[in-house]
Amino acid sequence: MSLFKDMLSSDESLFKDEEALNYDFVPRLLPFRDMQQKQIAECIKPLFNDRSGRNCFVSGAPGIGKTAAIRWVLRDLEDHTEEIQPFYINCWQKNTTYKVMLELCEQLGYKFTQNKKTEELFKVVNGLLINKGAVFAFDEVDKLDDFDFLYTILEEVTNKSVILITNFKEWLMDLDERIKSRLVCESYFFEPYTQDETHGILKERIKYAFVPGIWSEDSLKTIGEKTFSKKDIRTGIYLLKESGRIAEDASSKKIQMDHVKNAILKLDAFSVKSQDDLEDETKKVLEVVKNNNGGKIGDLYKKFQENGGLGSYKSFTRKVEKLEKADFITVKKTSGGAEGNTSIISLKDKQLSDF
Ligand SMILES: Nc1ncnc2c1ncn2[C@@H]1O[C@H](COP(=O)(O)OP(=O)(O)OP(=O)(O)O)[C@@H](O)[C@H]1O
Ligand SMILES: [Mg+2]
């Protein structure tokens, strides 16, 4: 008897293109975000006439197409002109001015970055952008450790649009005055998708990723409802992929409701953003919460500093906010009573089991 006897052969796979279920896949069509994409394109438009563009600030909850919409616009721009250089940088990975400058060089195809200081790297970038417009999209800007590059770009690059993307609408308000005063920008808030829109997006994604005819309307509806309840399209994409895999493991030629239900069961053990994705200082905050579960925010800050944590109380509270938004912890504000006015920080149950 072979362990592999009942397995579907590769030409029987239920997936037509599994890559279409990667979170960074940008589909050919991006339904329900046309208006936002047009608004962003309008900000970039002056660059086509050798003038500086407008800057944009994009905010909204996780998993609702902010990154996808911007990447779509940048790809479209790249397909239409060589006169405007698009840059896309994820500030979760590139969180300092030096790393950002290195990445800009990399995206311009400039290789001789070794032993160059930050300012020298910027000179190279600015030099390569002479007679060109540039669009700088900085995603997840709330993860940045310093903002000097923003100041430099705003001051010194002639024709540009800067696009800043974050989950936190209030991020702009807290920005250093020096930068804020130079950053006149249009703000766009992305609303979560409605139930119908969520359903439509997932239905469309199925066409890219699966062979035709294996999804029933009921199974898709169940995934659509679960996704809508989480308000995050990534949940839906995860469920599509997981259901497909479970069906394949069962050597089924269709995706049945049972497969979908099992995928949903797995979902509860899955965090959309894993702890490994957090940058080091934020991980340290999470560690402190873990060791002082249910503690007051002021006390946690002290512990954080004792453990070698860096930064002001304000940057600490921002990290706490980040962890709350990413669903790692809960923050409960108290007023009066024995605790006085403070916030009580606790780990989410599912995180407890992860440690
Ligand atoms: N309108 C849409 N059409 C098709 N796919 C979409 C749409 N909106 C979002 N998606 C898909 O959902 C997933 C999450 O979207 P995206 O990465 O853009 O979220 P986000 O708003 O940037 O979230 P975060 O704030 O967590 O970074 C991606 O795989 C993306 O392709
Ligand atoms: Mg994003």
Describe this structure in words.
This protein has three domains: about 160 residues, Rossmann fold (3-Layer(aba) Sandwich), CATH 3.40.50.300; about 80 residues, Helicase, Ruva Protein, domain 3; about 80 residues, Orthogonal Bundle (Arc Repressor Mutant, subunit A). The chain is globular, with a radius of gyration of 23 Å. The protein has 14 helices and eight strands. A five-stranded parallel beta sheet has the order 2-3-4-1-5, sandwiched between helices. The protein has a three-stranded antiparallel beta sheet with strand order 6-8-7. Helix content is about 45%, strand content about 15%. The two termini are about 40 Å apart. The C terminus is likely disordered. By secondary structure, the protein is of the alpha/beta class. The structure holds adenosine-5'-triphosphate and magnesium ion. Adenosine-5'-triphosphate (ATP) binds next to helix 2 and helix 9.
